[in-house]
Design brief:
- It is a single chain.
- The chain has 15 helices and ten strands.
- α2 packs across α4.
- By secondary structure, it is an alpha/beta fold.
- It has a single domain, classed as Phosphatidylinositol Transfer Protein Sec14p.
- A hairpin with a 5-residue loop joins β1 and β2.
- It is globular.
- The termini are far apart.
- GO terms for molecular function: phosphatidylinositol bisphosphate binding.
- It holds the Pfam family CRAL_TRIO_N.
- This is Clavesin-1.
Length: 313
């Protein structure tokens, strides 16, 4: 198991000859994917150009917002998440960058994967090497026994999840197919629950529901205890119906999980048949560090300091 580069110098994690993990790719040209994009997210060549032009005009109304207006890839990522609804996309972009000001503590000390390298080393987050049958990218987050709260704070964990999702969105196919996340809560304790205060929970929900340009196709909670179920019940009123509709609880019922995720892309411990070897968290840390420069660039985008305060007066 190691990190290699293809002929285009794009890095990937090699898990033996059969399994590779990429997060970066060129725009898709497969006719089936183009047809899916048109059917599911209203993406056609004509609509892309119209929406980009409309979105740029709206964003010019935000002179204090520094983002790459002429970068089609950057804007299309948000448009795809909103199915080319320009007004909705405009609101998402504004909300995302207001979060950086209103929730400064979640961003100011975590500009890139290197800044939280220790979180990945703990092995709490990993990508699956196979997509689900519907094309969705798969990510596993282990927030139970692997989460040592004396080493990893909730803010650092949130940043690690954010980097993992945003890195995956470098692949246009993932922007189209979306992502499915497995939350493994085995061994969840009161020490970990105490970290997840209402403030932190609301931040995570706001980011997932209103700020992150990804199509969340499913959140699958496994090994969930009564303790976790009680915690979820407390925060359920703050979760949008759209998000509630894609959250599923399976505990240890792997047949239930298999109704939503093809077992061929799941490891045996989740009732699957994936033969890819498991890899250490430090390998994912090494991999994501290769994208530090990309995240440093993203970190530089946002509203000018104080601009939102002036607007709120």
């Amino acid at each position: 198991m190691s990190i290699k580069r293809n002929e285009q110098d794009v890095p990937y994690i090699e898990l033996g000859e059969e399994f590779k993990i990429y997060v970066q790719a060129d725009e898709f040209t497969d006719p089936k994917l183009l047809a899916k994009a048109a059917a599911e997210i209203n993406e056609t060549p004509e609509r892309v150009q119209e929406a980009l032009a409309e979105l740029r005009e709206l964003l010019k109304q935000e002179p204090d917002l520094h983002i790459p207006l002429e970068d089609d890839k950057f804007l299309r990522k948000f448009l795809r998440a909103c199915k080319y609804d320009v007004q909705k996309t405009y609101q998402m972009i504004k909300f995302a960058y207001r979060m950086k000001i209103n929730g400064k503590e979640y961003y100011e000390n975590t500009p890139n994967p290197s800044s939280i390298r220790h979180v990945f080393d703990e092995g709490m987050i990993w990508y699956m090497p196979e997509r689900d049958a519907d094309g969705a990218a798969m990510c596993v987050v282990e927030v139970g026994k692997k989460w040592n709260t004396s080493k990893v704070s909730i803010i650092e964990l949130i940043a690690a999840i954010r980097f993992s999702v945003e890195a995956a969105l470098l692949d246009p196919e993932t922007q189209l197919h979306g992502m499915k996340v497995i939350f493994d809560t085995e061994g969840l304790s009161m020490a970990q629950i105490a970290q997840n205060t209402p403030k932190h929970a609301c931040m995570i929900l706001d980011w997932a529901q209103k700020a992150c340009p990804f199509r969340l196709r499913g959140v699958h909670v496994v090994n969930n205890s009564m303790l976790f179920n009680i915690l979820f019940a407390i925060f359920k009123p703050f979760i949008s119906k759209e998000l509630r509709d894609v959250i599923f609880f399976h505990n240890k019922d792997w047949k239930s999980l298999a109704k939503h995720v093809n077992p061929s892309c799941l490891r045996p411990k989740y009732g699957g048949s994936l033969a890819a070897p498991e890899y250490e968290g430090r390998l994912l840390g090494d991999f994501l560090q290769l994208y530090d420069k990309y995240f440093d660039t993203l970190d530089g985008y946002g509203y000018a300091e104080g601009s939102q305060k002036r607007k709120s007066k």
